Amino acid sequence: MPPLAAAASSLVDAPDSQINVTLNGSWRVVTDGVPDAYRMPPFRAQLSDAEIAQVLSYLRGAWGNSGGAVTAEAVGAMRAHTDPASSSPIVLQMR
Ligand code: HEM
Questions:
Q1: Which protein residues are within 6 Å of ligand 1, measured from CB?
Q2: What pLDDT shows up at residue 90?
Q3: Nearest CA to ligand 1 atom 4
Q4: What is the DSSP letter of 84?
Q5: Which residue lies with its CA nearest to atom 28 of ligand 1?
Q6: Hey, what domains does the chain have and what are their CATH numbers?
Q7: Which residue's CA is minimally distant from atom 18 of ligand 1?
Q8: Radius of gyration for the alpha carbons in the chain, expressed in angstroms and rounded
Q9: What is the rounded average pLDDT of the residues 40-69?
Q10: Following CA atoms 65, 39, 84, 95 in sequence, which dihedral angle do they give, to the nearest 10 degrees?
Q11: Beta carbons within 8 Å of 29's beta carbon, 6+ residues apart
Q12: How far is the CA of 22 from the centre of ligand 1 (A)?
């Protein structure tokens, strides 16, 4: 599990990458047929927009990080854009 202190995604203004990984997790990486140990689990079903906004706002301002606050509206927009049940897939540009 990577440290969140000084993670690049904790320092940039745009919180999109952090919202995405918190909502959707990261899929297991397989190299040469050998799965990586474990990845980030999704919290889409467990946490509300407001809860994800609160935890990301905290970690973006804690441990020396300097990213800005995250709004529940931004989480809601990303939740809709990345809904696995959606019939219109979207491509997220990583920053
Ligand atoms: C609400 C709780 C959590 C939040 C807000 C959170 C947030 C994050 C964020 C923002 C990142 C990206 C860090 C970066 O920019 O490099 C990340 C990555 C990661 N997290 Fe979490 N995390 C949470 C819980 C967990 C748990 C419970 C686990 C393991 C059981 C976990 C495992 C990981 C792993 C393995 C990565 C790296 C993913 C990858 O690079 O593919 N996280 N997490």
A1: 1-2, 4, 7-9, 18, 21-22, 26, 39-41, 43, 55-56
A2: 66
A3: 22
A4: T
A5: 40
A6: 8-81 (1.10.760.10)
A7: 40
A8: 14
A9: 94
A10: 40
A11: 35, 36, 39
A12: 7
Provide the token pair at 43: 């919290």
Residue 35 sits at φ, ψ, to 5 deg, of: -65, 145
At 4-28, the pLDDT tens digits run: 887 878 788 888 889 988 998 887 6
Q: Can you give the pLDDT at residue 75?
A: 97
Q: How far apart are CA 18 and CA 9, in angstroms?
A: 6
Output DSSP code: residue 21: H
- Going from the C-alpha of 22 to that of each of 31, 36, 65, the distances in angstroms are 24, 19, 17
CA dist., res. 83 & res. 67, Å (int) = 25
Residues 6+ apart with CB under 8 A from 19: 52, 56, 70, 74, 75, 78
Q: For the chain, give the longest Cα–Cα distance.
A: 40
pTM of the model as a whole: 0.83
